[in-house]
Amino acid sequence: MPQMPVEPTSPPVQFQLREPVSVSSVAATCDENMVHVQVKKDLFGSGELIQASDISLGGCGVTGEDSVAQLLYFQSYLQACGSQVVMTNDSLVYSFSLTYIPRAISDTSAPIVRTSGAVIGIECHYLRLHNVSSNALQPAWVPYAATKTAEELLVFSLKLMTDDWKFERPSNVYYMGDLIHFEASVKQYNHVPLRVFVDTCVVTAVPDAAAAPSYLFIQNHGCLVDSKLTGSSSRFLPRTQDFKLQFQLEAFRFQQGDTGSLFITCLLKATAAASPTDAEHKACSSVVGARPFRALSVKKKDFVNKPKFDE
User: Fold this and answer.
1) Boundary (domain end) residue, out of 72, 100, 127
2) Where does the record locate the signal sequence feature (predicted)?
3) Alpha-carbon torsion 77, 80, 81, 85, what sign?
4) Which one, of 50, 96, 104, lies nearest residue 72 by Cα?
5) Full-model pTM
6) Which of 37, 129, 146, 259 has the greatest number of CB atoms lying within 10 Å of its CB?
7) Is 157 within 8 Å of 147 (Cβ atoms)?
8) Rounded to 5 degrees, what angle do the CA atoms 45, 50, 52 make?
9) 118 and 190 share a domain?
10) Residue 163 domain-assigned (yes or no)
11) Number of Cβ atoms within 10 Å of the Cβ of 307
12) Residue 96's beta-bridge partner residues?
């Protein structure tokens, strides 16, 4: 009976399994009310190009394509394309899912794919807290309201209003006994409905909010204490819109170190309007009985300059 030939032993082969490498194939940019996403068609860096019809942003299709650079583009409002919004202690976070589901290779009878499915998370973060401070004031200056707009920041403003609350007050001068009318607001844009709060407000005679003398007339996360401490008519007004908050402060000057100018520094906060009021998000003031009219001899120096707010 013939013998089976002996197969020669194969020499050892140097082999190392090549692991897939991470690629940077997705980029996202968040602005005031939209998210922009750029995706490389070579999503996995393997040379296999994905089809635009196989990828979506929260169910929304591709909005643009660059066939030369092999790029796909998505654009969505923050509250569209299946976004989810979460509020943290200091931010509003909008989350999106970029989903790739490969289909079988077309024009063949083989039900196969050359790439794997993937879900990529995309987040846009917007800060909830923002400081609004005042500059030095001179009676001849024209007042202005300051807002600071930057990517991934909510936009706040603090204005001085006329007595009927209809217009911004054009005068720079307040006399003793006048009521200073403030209106704080946050820009809504395409965010979820927002409610603005004034967390603290302090008055100083110099630009430094920590300087002495100082008067913290809004404290404890939104309590206007001037009427309680001095018996004035300072108070918050009932809200007419969640993204606005109006309050009034009776004009004054410091007993010592009077410079003719006051600096007001306020911390504004915003929450989702659907969130309930709590100990750290409130607007409270003491209501006292009406005081009898008190005549005041006003000299030229007895004025309080109108606060003017800058970035």
Assistant:
1) 127
2) none
3) positive
4) 50
5) 0.50
6) 37
7) yes
8) 140
9) no
10) yes
11) 25
12) 122
